[in-house]
Amino acid sequence: MTLLMFIAGLVALIAGAEFLVRGASKLALSFGISPLVVGLTIVAFGTSAPEVAVSVGAVMDGRTDIALGNVVGSNIFNVLFILGVAALITPLVVHIQLIRQEGPIMLGASLLLLLLSLDGRLGLVDGLMLVALLVVYTVFLVVQSRRETKAAQEEYAAEFKAAPVGGWDASLPVQLLLIAIGLGLLVAGSGWLVDAAVIFAKSMGVSDLVIGLTIVAAGTSMPEVATSVMAAIKGERDIAVGNVVGSNTFNILGCLGLSGLVAGSAGLAVPASVLNFDIWVMLAVALACLPVFLTGREIARWEGAVFLAYYAAYVAYLILAAQQHDALGAYSSVMMGFVIPLTVITLVVVLLRRPPAEAA
User: Fold this and answer.
1) Are strands 268-269 and 121-122 parallel, antiparallel or unpaired?
2) For 303-359, what is each residue's pLDDT tens digit?
3) pLDDT tens for each residue of 61-104
4) pLDDT reported for residue 164
5) What are the residue ranges of helices labelled H in 32-102?
6) What end-to-end distance do the CA atoms of the chain give, in Å?
């Protein structure tokens, strides 16, 4: 039954992603809202619904390690795994707005989470602040996009070769129905997948925090995987990238904000291991996006491969740390002393050698 639930979850995710991308991209054309903003709001918030459900549910059950680990792990997974896979399918063009605005906002939200966690707890006031910032951010995006309606339509037609007005999915009710069905399938599929994965993990004796950082994080991010990969295949590259950046921002401001509100005066305890390692990895991943975005305004296939390699290295570290394996010390030394510095040097060289015409 567990295996069947896992397979059913995957099928629902694939179907849901198809409905969601079709409905969201058509909705963008109908309202004159740029596909990037649709990816940053409707698609990103919708595909983050599983993270909200899991985190809030975990807080209500008193399992705050899963709630926090889910968000931090999902943000790491979204950038390193999802953008990595999508970039391998097709190099992802990065919209100038992501470079100048959304990327720094995602980085700012990550830094804010770090600062709020320094006292070892996310309290009620912290939750209120995060939710308020999410509301302000969403309103700002919509207002900004409406002011650029004509330019957005021209960009949509030029970059994505949008189909002419008409067709069975041209009407607003059909588009909203497609989005609703897509989100419903994504949430249901993600739930089945996570439930099956947690059963497998529990049978292996893995801790709640590691489950939250890996299996639950990856499982609740499967809607983002399916949506971004499907968007990349269909040529909706702004949605593919915007979905990840928007989801990461929403995960911090929305998921942890709502979780903090549900936790009330008790707040969310921040485990020392998360504060000392995982949040810093999340922050480093957000920071790494900026030079990658800037190198030619696209995420090239080789950069996608680097992202995937780093995610594999991160998961390997978590597994070794959880088991207190003898190889942990040597592994950490190699990563910190050789692999990470080499990658940083490579990105800096590529950035410096970028032709002036490509400057953001």
Assistant:
1) antiparallel
2) 888 889 888 888 888 878 777 777 777 777 776 666 666 666 666 665 565 554 344
3) 777 777 888 889 889 998 889 888 888 888 877 777 666 788 88
4) 47
5) 35-38, 44-47, 49-60, 64-77, 84-89, 96-97
6) 51
Token digits for 256? Answer: 């942890």
State the burial class of residue 337 (Cβ atoms within 10 Å of its Cβ: 0-12, 13-18, 19+): exposed
Helix (H, G, I), strand (E, B) or coil at 301: helix
Helices (H) and strands (E) in the chain, counts: 21, 4
CA distance 331 to 257: 35
Q: Please, which residues bridge with residue 269 across strands?
A: 121
Q: Give me the architecture of the 37-150+208-358 domain, per CATH.
A: Up-down Bundle (1.20)
- Position 257 confidence tier, pLDDT thresholds 50, 70, 90: very high
**Phi, psi dihedrals of residue 162, rounded to the nearest 5°:** -60, 145
What is the per-residue pLDDT for 116? Answer: 93
Q: How many residues does the chain have?
A: 360
Residue 227's alpha-carbon distances to 86, 188, 238, 336, in angstroms, are 10, 15, 12, 33
- pLDDT per residue as tens digits for the range 174-189: 888 988 898 888 778 8
Tokens of 340: 């990470």
The helix-helix angle for 103-117 and 279-294 (nearest 10°) equals 160
Instruction: Classify residue 348 as exposed, middle or buried by CB count within 10 Å of its CB (0-12, 13-18, 19+).
Output: exposed
**23's tokens:** 């409905």
Domain segments of the chain as ranges: 37-150+208-358
Tell me how far apart the alpha carbons of residues 67 and 211 are, in angstroms, rounded to a whole number.
Answer: 10
Structure tokens at 260: 């903090």
